[in-house]
Amino acid sequence: MRPSHLLLAVLVAAVWGVNFTVIEIGLDHFPPLLFSALRFLIAALPAVFLVGRPKVAWKWIVAVGLVLGVAKFGLVFVGMDAGMPAGLSSLVLQIQAVFTAVIAAAVLGERPTRVRLAGMAVALAGIGVAAWDEGASGPLGAFALVVAGAACWGGSNVLTRKAAPPDALNFMVWVSTVPVLPLLALSLLTEGPARDLAALRALDWPGAGTLIYVAWISTVFGFGAWGWLLRRHPASAVAPFSLLVPVFGMSSAALFLGESVSPAQGCAAALLVGGVALTSLPARRRPARRSHCSDNGKSSFRYCGRPG
Question: Mean of the pLDDT values across residues 141-160?
Fold first, then answer.
């Protein structure tokens, strides 16, 4: 990768890591489901008029929009609003790599290698340490919501792989149109119209700034730049940069929100990042057997036999 491409990959990881701190700030201004709905509304408009028509079937756009937009982000925003720290959320969500591998094995028949199985075990040990620490010092229910969000993220990854969108930005913008109405409906049912209207009437510049960041910078720029990198480089070269997300997430939460990192969280971070790194390693391809072919010299017939 060129130095400029390396810097772009690090920048995207930083944008996504800091995004958790911005979400935490935004939750002081909006109910979680309303905040998530507004995030996708602003991400979709006006971009949906600029990216052209969808380049994959609508069934994939709707499926990813519901699983990623409604389920994953709804659970994560509600979990963070219920007390899950921003830095820990950025770390725990990395378990999505394990869920992706498990769902891909069940749905796509992809058999994980022994190295990947070992990575899953290490990452799950990290989740166990983090859950034990959070259960002792924070709301375990909020922790479980974020883990459930990571599982939904894994499911959306498999759906996206099946959809195989040729343009990641186009796909993400159209996906962003799907969750808006379901999330607004859920917000009205669970958070109440009075709370939603009060949040909108009290909208100020800090609240608007969080919406702009999570919609245009984290979603549109982040996924667009990530897709641009994936079109120019192998996934095995780009994917490891996502491991920097919890580094930036926990650092920004400590810097701007005053969140501390306990020894148990540090241990969980080491296990999770190490396990996800092993899970993300590309499978080794078996070398193709070389064939020995002979020409009889009289016709176009060629005999190809196995060596030996």
Answer: 92
Question: DSSP alpha helices (H): ranges in 164-283?
Answer: 168-177, 180-190, 193-201, 205-212, 222-232, 235-238, 245-256, 263-279
For residues 178-195, give the mean pLDDT.
Answer: 97
| Minimum mean pLDDT range among 233-237, 270-274, 302-306 | 302-306
Q: Which two tokens stand for residue 16?
A: 């996504």
Nearest in space to 150 (alpha carbons), one of 98, 102, 197: 98
Residue 61 token pair: 């756009």
The residue length of the chain stands at 308
> Average pLDDT for residues 100-114, to the nearest whole number?
85
Q: Which residue has the tokens 């005999």?
A: 303
pLDDT > 80? residue 100: yes
Give dist(CA 73, CA 65) in Å, integer: 10
DSSP letters of 67-124? IIIIIIHHHHHHHHHTT--HHHHHHHGGGHHHHHHHHHHHHT-PPPPHHHHHHHHHHH
